[in-house]
Amino acid sequence: MPHQTAQPALTSQPRPDLLVVLAGPRGFCAGVDRAIRVVEEAIRRYGAPVYVRHEIVHNRTVVETLEAQGAVFVEELDEVPADAHVVFSAHGVPKSVPAEAQRRNLSYFDATCPLVSKVHREAERHYAGGGPGTRHILMIGHAGHPEVVGTMGQLPPGSVTLVQDTADAETVAPADPVRLAFITQTTLSVDDTADIVATLRRRFPAIEGPKHEDICYATTNRQAAVKAIAPQCDLVVVIGSPNSSNSQRLREVAERGGAARAILLPRANQLDWSVLEGVRTVGITAGASAPESLVQELLGCLGERYSLRIEERQVTQEDVVFKLPAPLC
C-alpha cells in the first residue's frame, strides 16, 4: 500500500463574542422615503432619463441605485436638456430654481421634505412681504448645506442672517434687535440648537420662534435613540455619508452621550477593523438618508468574524408617511 501522510485535523478558532446594540429608530425617515419614491415614480411614468438636481438625499448607495434605474444627477439646471423632466432634492431649493425651470419649459417635481417646506413657510410668514411688520430672520444652520441655501433662498438677499453656533449667537448684530425671528435647519443637534436658541433669547427677549419645533421628528428620534445606547457602548458606528448632516450629528451625539468612541461609516467594506480591537459592545445606527440594507450588510460582515448577540433598543415608533407631490400621487 502506498504510504499515506496523516492530515492534520481541521480546527477553527472560536469567534470572539460581540454584543451589538441596534438603535431604533434608525435609517430612512418619511421625507427621504418620499424623495426616493418621487424619482422612482417619475421614471416609471415618463421613462428614463429623469434628471435630479443635486443628490436626492445624501447617500451614495441611494444615488447609485437610482442611477441604475435611469436617474441622471446634475448640479445645476443648465445641465438639463430642454423639455426634460427634473426632480428637486429633498433638501429644498431657492425660489430661483423653479423659476428657472419654468423659464426653460422643464417639467419639474419638487421632492423637498414637507418638514423643510414648513420652515420655508415660516420664513415667509416672518418676512411678511417686506412691509412694516417684517422681522429680520436669524437662521440656525450650517453654511453651504443645501437645506440652508434653499431656505435662505426663499427670501430676498439680506433678509436672513446665518447663525452657526453659540459664538455667532453672541455676536450677531441685527439692525433692529426687537423685530427678529429665528428658524433652524431640520437636521441639527437638538442639544446644540437649544444652547444657541437660549443665547438668542437672552440677548433678544422679543425674538419670535417657530410655532412648532423646526428640527424634524426623525432627527430628534434618532438622536434620542443614540443617547439611549451610547453609555454602554465601546464603539458606536453610524452608517451614513460624510456629507449627511443628520449622520454627522449622530456621531457627535454618540460621543457626547458616553460612547468610548463613535465613527461614521458609509459602507461596511470601508470599515477599518482595527477600531474593533478590544471592543465588546458596539452600537449601530443609521442616518435618516441611509437604507437599512447597509445596516444588515454591516451585521453580515461582523457575523463572519464574531459570535454576535444582537439587541434592539427602540425608544419610539414612527408611522409618518408623506404623500407624493402632484402629479405623481
Short structural summary:
The chain is an alpha/beta fold.
What would CATH call the architecture of the largest domain? Answer: 3-Layer(aba) Sandwich
Strand numbers in spatial order across the main sheet = 10-9-11-1-12
Characterize the overall form.
flat
Largest sheet data: 5 strands, parallel
CATH first level of the largest domain = Alpha Beta
How far apart the termini lie comes to: 79 Å
- Whole-number average pLDDT? 94
Q: Give a count of the beta strands, DSSP E runs of length 2 or more.
A: 12
Task: Explain how this protein is built.
This protein is of the alpha/beta class. It folds into three domains: 17-28 and 217-314, 3-Layer(aba) Sandwich (Cobalt-precorrin-4 Transmethylase, domain 1); 30-113, Rossmann fold; 115-203, 4-hydroxy-3-methylbut-2-enyl diphosphate reductase, catalytic domain (Cobalt-precorrin-4 Transmethylase, domain 1, 3-Layer(aba) Sandwich). 35% of the residues lie in helices and 19% in strands. The protein contains ten helices and twelve strands. The chain has helices at 30-46, 60-69, 96-103, 114-127, 146-152, 166-171, 190-203, 217-229, 245-256, 292-305; strands at residues 17-24, 50-53, 71-74, 85-88, 107-110, 136-140, 160-163, 180-184, 235-239, 262-265, 281-286, 307-314. The strands form three sheets. The protein has a five-stranded parallel sheet, sandwiched between helices. Strand 4 (85-88), helix 3 (96-103) and strand 5 form a beta-alpha-beta unit. Helix 4 (114-127) runs parallel beside helix 5 (146-152). The radius of gyration is 24 Å and the shape is flat. Residues 1-11 have low confidence and may be disordered.
